[in-house]
Design brief:
Strand content: 5-15%
Number of helices: 17
EC number: 1.1.1.22
Helix content: 40-55%
GO biological process, one term: polysaccharide biosynthetic process
Largest sheet: 8 strands, mixed
Order of helices and strands: EHEHHEHEHEHEHEHEHHHHEHEHHHEHEE
Number of strands: 13
Strand order of the largest sheet: 3-2-1-4-5-6-7-8
Keywords: NAD, Oxidoreductase
Shape: globular
Bound molecules: nicotinamide-adenine-dinucleotide, uridine-5'-diphosphate-glucose
Pfam families: UDPG_MGDP_dh, UDPG_MGDP_dh_C, UDPG_MGDP_dh_N
Protein name: UDP-glucose 6-dehydrogenase
Length: 439
Amino acid sequence: MARISVFGIGYVGVVSAACLAKDGHTVIAVDVDPGKIKSINDGLSPIVENGLDALIAEVVAAGKLTATNDVQYAIDNSDASFVAVGTPSAPDGSVGLTYVEGVCRNIGAALANKSSFHSVIIRSTIVPGSCEATCIPVLEKASGKVAGTDFGMGYYPEFLRESTAIEDYYDPGLIVFGALDKKTGDFLTALNTGLNCKIHVVDLRTAEMVKYTSNTWRAVKVTFANEIGNIAKASGLDGQTVMEILCSDEKVAMSKYFMRPGFAFGGSCLPKDVRALRYLANSTGTNAHLLNAVIEANEAQIQRAEAMVEASGAAKVGFVGISFKPGTDDLRESPLAELAARLIAKGVEVGIYDPYVFEAYAANNSTAGRGNDVIPDLKDRMVEDLDHLIGDSGAILVGNFYKNTVGSLEKAAQTRPVLDLTRMKRDMVSEGQYQGICW
Ligand SMILES: NC(=O)c1ccc[n+]([C@@H]2O[C@H](COP(=O)([O-])OP(=O)(O)OC[C@H]3O[C@@H](n4cnc5c(N)ncnc54)[C@H](O)[C@@H]3O)[C@@H](O)[C@H]2O)c1
Ligand SMILES: O=c1ccn([C@@H]2O[C@H](COP(=O)(O)OP(=O)(O)O[C@H]3O[C@H](CO)[C@@H](O)[C@H](O)[C@H]3O)[C@@H](O)[C@H]2O)c(=O)[nH]1
């Protein structure tokens, strides 16, 4: 079993730290946010994510996971570090490396004081060449040591999806990494052995590129499915039925994931990663026609939902779901939040039912409301009781699917417009007050 430090206790870091600890490794989580450090050390999850509360309580009680802001302590007491800090878009759409640079500088300074071998493994999403052009030079300068010789260096992207993060951790669709040195490569191979997935060992740049390729492909799939859905609906057809039939053709290895017509994609990764890849393409003189179109079409899908709300004529709209997808409290680049903000700016009153975001506020999580930079007074708009929201709203917008809401929402469609962006019930199609975005 290994001793591992995880830098960045965000959506990725906290899940990998907890799962590594569950697997028997001794894990030190490092962050600059005292709220997150306290949460972990109290045995509590700093984010709302399925199964994570119990997992963290278990591994912290077992003494396998601790959290600190002390970088030197973490480096001295681990043999490898995972870096999972954020890489948000820079204003020009390029990948933002500020946090990655900062943490490499901190790790490098601590490595200067350590004599035994240590591997630094980047897990943040960074464009091809970033390890070589940024991480390695910063680590080498701060440590006075040479990457690949004096300390180990790897790039090992993470593919988990929020809301199914623990499940994805133990059942990955893809494992890929690059390592400068054999020790780091062997460490990552051993860590992944036993999972039911082929391990691809490549160079650092290829591993960096595979991560963007994966997210962009997902964004392309969502956009394609949405466009087919829009066209199908305009032709009087059920877009989801059309796509389900297409996806039944498994002969060409068609996966049904991300092929379900509905609302725009969002979240902390797909939008920023498509932007960063497009920026990279432009900077190499490559035309990224498809990526331009994906961004344009995704924005148009938000406008399409906005037009549905406007057509309802409601002055007060109740949102069912506001996070970027069900099962998480994360609001980063949530298209639902963007839609709500646009309606609010036009004078529409907006109330919100979202059990996951509500839970984050109720638990006083330091991350409650994470990623919301568009909805004013979000906390005050949150409603705990769905029936209360329905009774109080002229129209209901179903943004995220929550199983327990279906009965009430179906009933609500008899008395007021219900605008469905997710399809709460497979047999419902646009009729009367019920309108589905692509069906
Ligand atoms: N969210 C996902 O589902 C997901 C999945 C796969 C990959 N990724 C990628 O993983 C990376 C992290 O994403 P996230 O959503 O977990 O980010 P996040 O913003 O939720 O978490 C990042 C954490 O890093 C901490 N941090 C910043 N600077 C630090 C420093 N110098 N030392 C220690 N901690 C520091 C922050 O306080 C924060 O807690 C990004 O590159 C993202 O693109 C995200
Ligand atoms: O059929 C689908 C599936 C997803 N989405 C939307 O696409 C966005 C992203 O969803 P998802 O990919 O499930 O969530 P993330 O947690 O952002 O995960 C993505 O981004 C992570 C960060 O890089 C990667 O690790 C994952 O592999 C990648 O799926 C959300 O707005 C979803 O509502 C759809 O519209 N239709």
